[in-house]
Amino acid sequence: MRSSKLTVWPTREALSRLGVPRVRIALDIAVLAGLAAWAVYSAYDAEVFHGLGAVLPPLGLLCCAAAVFGFHRTTLANRLGPSLGLIAALAAVGAAAYVAGAAVPAMVLWISASVTAMERLPLFAGLGTAAVMSIGFPLADDSEFGAYFTIAAVLLGGYSLRLDAQARGAGFRLLAQERAAREAEATSVALAERARIAREIHDVLAHSLSAQLVHLEAARIQIERGPQGPFREQILERVVAARVMAREGLAETRQALSALRGEMAPVEDYLRELAVADGAETEVTGERRQLTAEASQAVRRVAQEALTNARKHAPGAEVRIQLAYEKDEVALEVRDSGAGAHGGELGASGSGYGLLGMRERAELLGGTLEAGPEGEGFVVRLRVPA
């Protein structure tokens, strides 16, 4: 267990400085890059590099800034080799500055790099980096006591910053877990409430429709056995129509109950079944995924309402259903080849009451519904987040 603590990376929350303002993070990077640039500029002032002219300071600043930024990126990705290479480059800048006679900037750069390594690298790598760089502390500080004090301060400061970042990251992880637990609890409560509502609907509406079907079927059989005549045919037609409506209502009720329980079949399967019953064509594009109950119900109801309008206003027209799974939403389009009368009254009135209700449903979900004549036919387009 002890060796694993030495080799493990700080958590991603700690490395990303979660909870720390971005301005503060940028300032920390800028300070370390500035210290490195200070060492380069101090070395440039020495006669060793004086012949390079004005190129060295800005070039050194860019290289140091790139190294510091790259170090933060590679440590965030837990890439030990590149991270050690970049921190070694900063150490080399300090060594070059020391050779050129800029001892103070070199030592400050070594201290900052050591503290950063202690904070962001696995503990064994951070301690090793600090140990290597601490070799230069006695060279830059004539006082032996001062050098040892600097080494102790570097180790203590770097480890303290590491623990602080870890504690902050652990706090944010706990908050995220608590938020996820609350969301799961809310979802569980919502599902339980939906199940209760589904039971109530089943006990009342589904049983009622089932009983109506039984009585209507019995009435149909008795009427068919009765004497022939125009009155018999009219009553039989009405009973058969009422039986069909009751059967469709029972099927829709069962689908609504399944939606409340979260047991709905994929929406594309429902659309294909609906298209087969109405003689329509279906096309599904995009990567299939599970939709929320609300989005799935909106797609089903709009498709059903659009097909009902097509049968009513453009009987015999060709109907095409297109469902597209997009990045953050799902799009449904129902288009018929239509008749002139279809687009007139329905389009001018903003579609019928059914589509008006579907438009309200879509808006409640943060989506949109458009319905109106297009070409010779009529088009209904629905887009809802999913």
Q: Choose one word for the global shape.
A: elongated
Oligomer: single chain
| Range of strand content | 5-15%
Number of helical stretches of at least 4 residues: 14
Jot down its keywords.
five-stranded mixed β-sheet; alpha+beta; elongated; 9% strand; 386 residues; 14 helices; single chain
Please characterize this protein's 3D structure.
By secondary structure, the chain is α+β, with helices and mostly antiparallel strands. It has 14 helices and 5 strands. A hairpin with a 3-residue loop joins β2 and β3 (329-336). It is elongated, with a radius of gyration of 37 Å. The two termini are 45 Å apart. Mean pLDDT is 76; it is low at 340-352.
How do the strands and helices of this protein lay out in sequence?
Blueprint: H1 2-7, H2 12-15, H3 22-45, H4 56-76, H5 80-99, H6 103-120, H7 123-134, H8 137-140, H9 144-225, H10 230-261, H11 267-278, E1 281-285, H12 293-313, E2 319-325, E3 329-336, H13 340-348, H14 353-364, E4 368-374, E5 377-385
Parallel strand pairs: 1-2
Antiparallel strand pairs: 2-3, 3-5, 4-5
Helix pairs in contact: 3-4, 3-5, 3-6, 4-5, 5-6, 6-7, 6-9, 7-9, 9-10, 11-12, 12-14
